Amino acid sequence: MYAATTIGGGLGTGLLSFYLGIGVAALLRTMFGYDAWDRDFNATIGYIFGLVGWLMGVGMWGTWGREWFGLKIKDPHANSRKELGWQRYFMFNVDHKVIGIQYLATFLVVFMTAGLMAMIIRLELMGSGQDFISNKTYNTVLGMHGIMMVAVAVAAVVGGLGNYAVPLMIGADDMAFPRMNALSYWLVPPVAVTLLLSPFLGGLETGWTAYPPLSVLTDSAQTFWNVAIITFGLSSILGGLNFVVTVMFMRAPGMTWGRLPMFVWSMFVTAWLALLYTQGFAVALIMVTLDRIAGMGFFDAERGGDPLLYQHVFWFYSHPAVYIMILPGFGIALEVIGHFSRKPLFAYRYAVGAFLGILGLSGVVWAHHMFTAGIPNYLHGPFLVATELISIPTGLIFLSALGTIWMGKLWLRTPMLFALAVIFNFACGGVTGIFLADVPTDIHLQDTYFVVAHFHYTIVGGEIFGLFAGIYYWFPKMTGKMYNEKLAKLHFWWMFIGFNLTFFIMHWPGIEGMNRRIADYPESLQTANLIVSLSAFLLGSSFIVFIYNFINSWVRGPAAEANPWGARTLEWQTSSPPPVENFLTPPVIAGHPYDYGVPGAAPHVTFFPPAVGSPAGGGGGGQ
Amino acid sequence: MSKHLIPAALLWVVLTAIGEATFLLDWLPVVGSPEAEEWDLIFNVLLAMGIPVFTFVVAALVYAFTNFKTSNDGVETGATFKGTGMFPKVWLVATSALVAVAMVIGLVSLSNLQADKSGYGWGEDQAPLVIETTAQRFSWTFSYKDKNVELLSAKDSELLLPIDTEVKFELNSIDVIHSLWIPAFRMKIDAIPGRTTFLTVEPHKLGSFETDENFRVQCAELCGLNHTIMSMHIRVVEQAEFDAWLASKQAKVSR
To answer: Quick check: A367 and A312 in contact, CB under 8 A?
Structure first.
């Protein structure tokens, strides 16, 4: 009933408002003597109306509007979790644990869908020649695979695992702004639906980067795509703001910055990146939209515009975005490696410094995506230097990971296997990055499959392996059930081997002369592509094991203990799954989260009620 | 501790030797110009530096994976050092030094590529042969400057270049962003509406698409529907053959 009201209400008001918006646009156009119907113009106005209607329908009106205008409100907390049952995942719920699972489930579906598109791409590229899909379909599938995977990489870990684990790990009862948190999530479904509908709205032609003038001139679903991605950016910004405030002000007494778990650090830094830079992408796409529907000419050289302006603004965001993707991967890897090595995390303070160093440098390297774009020659040197500087903080992450496993007692459960794979994969992705940061080598490699292989190594190998480490690590906490270890290990090895075969070999056609985003290639590249395609199918099929294990264990897995990993951090010191308020008694932090086996080390968490006069927020304590 | 360090270091050396052995294979694409030769050199230097970095991580992971694992369900704890001593500082200095070397290699080779400090392109600013290139969806127009010869890319047409002569491509686009890439010369620059970009190469090997498929012009920036097919074959010929071909083309035009 609750679920039906939410989804039905949202869809109903959303669709009504969408058509209302189209009507209003048509009316205005007629009034001023234009044709009543212009797909891009009417659709944009309709989308804005529809989005507001959808948000009102799913719960914003019920939680904010009614209260503001003094109308009778239904308190969402009046219904107990037991009464709501599974339906709490389908409503405007403000519990961070529910929102985390909503994010995670949504983005796993998006991930699998975009993964199927990768399979279509590899099927087309298996042989030289136009095999079974047209160029138009190929471009659409390619664009959708790209943007959906970017969305997964940006939001699956932060929105899913971050939302679930961060408040628990810092001893808060929820995020700082629970209702804004729910809003961040409910902005996502219209984005997913619009993207999935794009083949029926005219297809996509520009890939996920949407470079003008093509994105201005193209007759495709570009405008729908723009407004959807701007919406997604809004969700990201609100989420980032929420994490920044939560981590700064909601920490339990004694949780000093020097005792913050690595995963929380990574979320904090990631949130800053999302908050500071996402506007770049939104502004770039707003300008493209205005060029399309209002003829502004920002990117039209003949009217004094500059096509390269877009690339600068776009990469202001989209380069920091790769750290929005990879830092959570590093965070989970170090977190898991710390606990499963049963040994203090090596060089903790250097690793935190590395996160902050990456935060600082990420904003000044964007033009390395434009080395062959015809930027003035004098710009190449500075961006080469800035880009290669990032290797130094990244090296500290490796120092911390390798120093931690050295002389440890490695407990090789599935989360640990995935975490170690993050380090392995990123070592490869990091080394290949040097060839792209170095301008002379980049000239040949830019826009080839070498780049494709490189960013899949960093993003999939780094973050998506981290995502799965996190899913297996927190699965018992989130579901209260234990996953099947044998199937999980099977999934790991299957995915690890499939992934490395696919993307390691993929460097080769790139160097040999195969450019990106093409449906066909010269015959000499046939063998390499056949091997890559077959490996990609191996990689793709590994997720069948995961889906089965995930669903089957959630439904009928054995009950999990509160702390199956014997970990020191806070989220494991409460029941699995945790109560709505997270902790029955307020936690107090007394020691470092990773001090395994250190003689005389204080436990990370105690549950004594805070002594009178101790600071209420996170600020207290030495360090 | 050294009882672990020595075998792990040995593993690193073995893995590095295997990695560096790939230099025995000649697997890079055809070298059609001094620019490509230079590219192969820098690529190989960076690869030779990158392999030991990668194998260092792999050796540490593999060694720890096989030697430090426990079947004791996480009850046992490991060593208790925290990395607060000298080691991270040494690491920081070592990695910074490596990065500095990579930067110097990059900057030195970059400075060789940029004869024109404020222009938009690679190589010499002046060349004996200039080809004005116009990109449009989904074809190229190559106009030999002052020669009165213009070629439109088509399935069976070829772009002829004389051997051992510097050729400067001056690029413009009349619609969207394209990119001119010639894999045999390892050179690429985008074509942008409203801005002229250039690249200069000096082919030093005879060849054509039939002998090696990297003798081609390929659009390397997604330009829409038929981006895939936006390419044209290249043939590098002797100067005499080039002159004869040019004359025959000019004759056709004047007739």
So the answer is: yes
Using the 8-state DSSP alphabet, how is residue A10 labeled? H
> Measured between CB atoms, which of A136, A350, A412 is closest to B88?
A350
Distance CA A99, CA A182 (A): 7
Name the residue type at position A159.
G
pTM for this entry: 0.94
A619, pLDDT greater than 50: no
Task: Look at strands B167-173 and B197-201 and give their pairing.
Answer: antiparallel
- In chain A, what residues touch B186 (CB-CB under 8 Å)? 443-444
- Distance set, CA B87 to CA B4, B79, B91, B171, B239 (Å): 17, 16, 6, 52, 61
- Residue range A83-93, pLDDT digits in tens: 677 888 888 88
A216 within 8 A of A300, measured Cβ to Cβ: yes
The secondary structure element, H or E, covering residue A133 is none
Instruction: Label residue B116 by pLDDT band (50, 70, 90).
Output: confident
pLDDT for B31-63, tens place per residue? Answer: 999 999 999 999 999 999 999 999 999 999 999
Residue A418's closest CA among A330, A478, A353? A330
Interchain contact B9–A (C-beta under 8 A): no
Mutating which of B39, B72, B76, B110 best tests the A interface, going by the most A Cβ atoms within 10 A? B110
Is B52 at the interface with chain A, CB within 8 A?
no
**C-alpha closest to that of B232 among B145, B131, B156:** B156
Kindly report the three-state secondary structure assignment for every residue of B105-121: HHHHHHHHHECCCCCCE
Angle, helices A96-125/A163-170, rounded to nearest 10 degrees: 140
The separation between CA A541 and the C-alpha centre of its own chain, rounded to angstroms, equals 22
Residues in chain B closer than 8 A to A308 (CB atoms): 192, 195
Do residues A362 and A273 lie in contact, with contact meaning Cβ atoms separated by under 8 Å?
yes
Cβ(A444)–Cβ(B39) below 8 Å = yes
**8 A C-beta contact, residue B163 and residue B206:** yes
b/e A70-92 (16+ beta carbons within 10 angstroms → b)? eeeeeebeeeeeeebeebbebbb
Rounded to 5 degrees, φ, ψ at B114 are -110, 85
> How far apart are alpha carbons B28 and A435 in whole angstroms?
15
How many Å apart are CA B232 and CA B159, to the nearest integer?
7
Of the partner residues B212, B222, B228, the one whose CB lies closest to the CB of residue A520: B228
A297 CA: distance to closest CA in chain B (Å): 13
Six-digit token string for A507: 């460097």
The domains found in chain A, sorted by start residue, are: 1-93 (no CATH), 94-556 (1.20.210.10)
The conformation of residue B86, written as its DSSP 8-state character, comes to S
Longest CA–CA span in chain A (Å) reads: 82
CB atoms within 10 A of CB A132: 11
How close A36 comes to chain B (CA, Å)? 29
Q: Specify whether the CB–CB gap between A468 and A549 falls below 8 A.
A: no
From CA A184, how far away is CA A176, in angstroms rounded? 13
